[in-house]
Amino acid sequence: MSAGAVAAALRAPARWRPWELALWAAIWATPLLLAQHAALINEVAILGLFALSLDLILGYAGIVSLGHAAFFGVGAYGAALFAKHVMPDPLVGLVVGTLLGALLGAVTSPMIVRGTDLTRLMVTMGVALVLFELANKFDTLTGGADGLQGVVMAPLLGRFEFDLGARVASFYSLAVLFVAFVLLRRMVHSPLGMSMQALRDNRLRLVAMGLSVNGRLALVYTLAAGLAGAAGALLAQTTGFASLDVLEFHRSADVMLALVIGGAGWLWGGLVGAIAFKVLHDLISAVTAQYWTFWIGLFLVLLMLVGRDRLFRPARWFGRGR
Fold first, then answer.
1. Using H for helix, E for strand and C for coil, what is the string for the chain?
2. 3 phi and psi, to 5 degrees?
3. Other Cβ atoms closer than 10 A to 31
4. Is-contact 277 319, C-beta < 8 A?
5. Nearest 10 degrees: CA dihedral of 297, 60, 308, 289?
6. 288 CB-near residues (< 8 Å, 6+ apart)
7. 229 with 101: CB under 8 angstroms?
8. Measured distance CA(84)–CA(97) in Å, rounded
9. How confident is the model over 248-306, as pLDDT tens digits?
């Protein structure tokens, strides 16, 4: 096979498929077609970005985490405090939240690159719990259990006011999600992304090739932390509020469930899972607000027993019988 043919084969997965373009067109149209559900669309976009960040470390690098809310919460509090005490510009605040999340990821990455999966689970969860207690203790800064109130954002790009209907917020969050998706899509199909998948599948082979395993793990962990911080910043900016809820364990569990539903190891998995989880949550809680977790749990059990491919592709299920 010639060098040109090899290069073309490597570039093929990076090409945009027609169905991807169609899906993004549909996603961009939702705030216009479903304006009454703009707040839900905003939540889906934020959870989608959060799920992308988790997929980057879990699906592509094989790093398990039960404390991803730590970066989400740092981004949320950072953006909220920045808007309240320094500058209310949303784009600058988004950068601040992203950088704070990435900084926390870089600081904690040495604890992640070593040890087993069980060690990583305990360390990531421990970091989130420590930050939760610190936010609760320093209530003069964070607002404690009452939350950080009085966060007022300036108009987006100096023109678009954040309205009560969340229409501007939904477009803002979707724009950030789209930019992150495009950049991550390019990264996972780059040599760095290929090496991360090789690391996930066979770490010893990567070591034998002379590549730095710990360096790649630390880099991807920092990038994922920055994305999670951006998601937290979006939540604080679009709601005008930050509370201890952004650091609680259920925040990490929700994004993990979204990724389980959509599937790890492909970028669309985080988006599909976020849409499915939020829509199911909204529909079920409207019927039974007290027991919605039961039905979500039942759906997850069904998903695991039947299989994602069989459940989401009934034609293939019935046609092949397997």
1. CCHHHHHHHHHHHHCCCHHHHHHHHHHHHHHHHCHHHHHHHHHHHHHHHHHHHHHHHHCCCCCCCCCCHHHHHHHHHHHHHHHHHCCCCHHHHHHHHHHHHHHHHHHHHHHHCCCCHHHHHHHHHHHHHHHHHHHHHCHHHHCHHHCECCCCCCCECCCECCCCCCHHHHHHHHHHHHHHHHHHHHHHCCHHHHHHHHHHHCHHHHHHCCCCHHHHHHHHHHHHHHHHHHHHHHHHHHHCCECHHHHCHHHHHHHHHHHHHHCCCCHHHHHHHHHHHHHHHHHHHHHCCCCHHHHHHHHHHHHHHHCHHHHHCHHHHHHHCC
2. -65, -35
3. 22
4. no
5. 30
6. 295
7. yes
8. 13
9. 888 888 888 888 888 777 888 888 888 888 888 888 877 776 777 777 777 777 776 76
User: Is the separation of the CB atoms in 78 and 94 below 8 Å?
Assistant: no
CB 72 within 8 A of CB 50: yes
Give tens-digit pLDDT for 216-258: 788 888 999 999 999 999 999 988 888 888 888 888 888 888 8
Measure the N-to-C terminal CA separation of the chain; round to a whole number of Å. Answer: 36
Overall pTM surpassing 0.90 (yes/no): no
